[in-house]
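Hey, can you fold this one?
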Amino acid sequence: MNLTLYGYDDQWIAVDCGMMIRQDLPNSPLQVPNTDTLEALKITPKALFITHGHEDHIGAVAWLWPKWGCPIFATPLAAGLLRYKFAEHQLSSAAIEVIEPGDAVESGPFTLRYLNVTHSIPESCSIMMQAGDYRVLHTGDWKLDPTPLIGPPINAAHFRALAPVDLLVGDSTNAPMPGQSGSEGDVAKALAKTLKACTGRVVVSCFASNLARVLAIGLAAQACGRRVSLMGRSMERMVSVARGLGYLDDFPPLVPSHDLGYLPPEEVVIIATGSQGEPRAALQRLAQRRHPFMDLEPGDSVIFSAKAIPGNERPIEQLKKRLLQLGVTLFDEANHPELHATGHPAQEELKKLYQWVRPKRLLPVHGEARHQEAHQALAEEMGISAPFAPVNGDMLVLDHQGLRCEARYPQPPCIVNQNSVVHHPGLESNHPTARRGSLFLALPVAATETGWCRIGRLMLDASGASPMDEDSFSEWLDEQLEEIEADTLADLRHALQPRLVHWLASHLQHMPEVHLQIMAAEMPSIEELNDEP
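Sure. Predicted structure:
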């Protein structure tokens, strides 16, 4: 959820404050960072710096910022999105301060400069910070895109001027991917070609925040003589904020969704939310014929211009089955990979940036364990020290002796329940009075053709609980995942819960309080598996 704290001389700042959707829990609640450790250590950030406007970087601000009351620095688009969130929470937005890419700001002993990078949302920035003798580059989310459509490409000279940096805190999301990520300019050409060949209505589903993609769809539709409509609250909000900032001046006029039924099908293009199979999104309503203004018919087309987020594979497949039953033609990353480009750097892009800024050390963040490990390996090949891959709750120290982990603090998950942030209830046992200690278990899983499997390392923290054989426990978990038949993470958790309680009751002297988090992970490709030693 990308909340990172930086401290110097007992003064602290925070970078980003995101949320995630807990698909393994009923009603898919939001999970936000746990601030218990900060409160126990008496850490209160004096300022919050936002790198860009994606939900996994700003989604928890309105929930957690009232505890801090500090200034919030964000670029204009992210600031506009935050103001919407604050208004919904009935919070004053006076603390939100706009900072332009390229500007610098001071907070206590910290001097921070925002540096423009390309990503799948405009105004994404890396942050170069200096405190005392230490210089740290926090990359945020980025890629090297020569034709980003909205906003300028990365200025290499600005990053070369930073060299060398003491520590680079870097995006690991695509570290296992060889070569380079695709360009939004190339995706725009592919969309224009695909739309031109379609007959009937066309629905294009993408992430609302990818404004370059939204603009490309609108321009392609206009070139084909089609009218454009938006479906989905987040899409309408994002386009509204972007238009107010002048990012979509060339976007064609919009048709209200309630007028779509009056237009000939071959004159319609709809840009809709729901590419991840979300149950309440516009595309799901269309697939289930529950949309009030329009029905999809045979001969219509649906384009998925987005990659499946790990863990969403099954809901997406169910959505596609419903669409196929309606007789529509599907375009997705499997049969038309040119219709999407990732927003994160592949290996050649990582190498190029590191040649520019020449970091002495790397801290690989923002990715699953295997992404961080691939990032470490790449850094070591370049002669950059990358001593470890951090996990949530690590207290890290950078000094003249190097980078080390000083302490690890358990991070029990917190979720939003009835407009309040509460601790995850954990697993209920039949004998709550017999609990001794706490067991925090984070289980990364990936969907396979036959079921589920564990990916990467098992994250286990037994605070005050009876000792246990972790190897035997891991083997047992793998066996359960092979046996359990479940279509969603929520179903998997429901099936695993009683088995887990029974195993712990049979193998531990005392029953601890258990907190289980099942995390969606991405299955390594065949090529990556073949590359492993």
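The two ends are 31 Å apart (CA to CA). Let me know if you want another pass with a different chain boundary.
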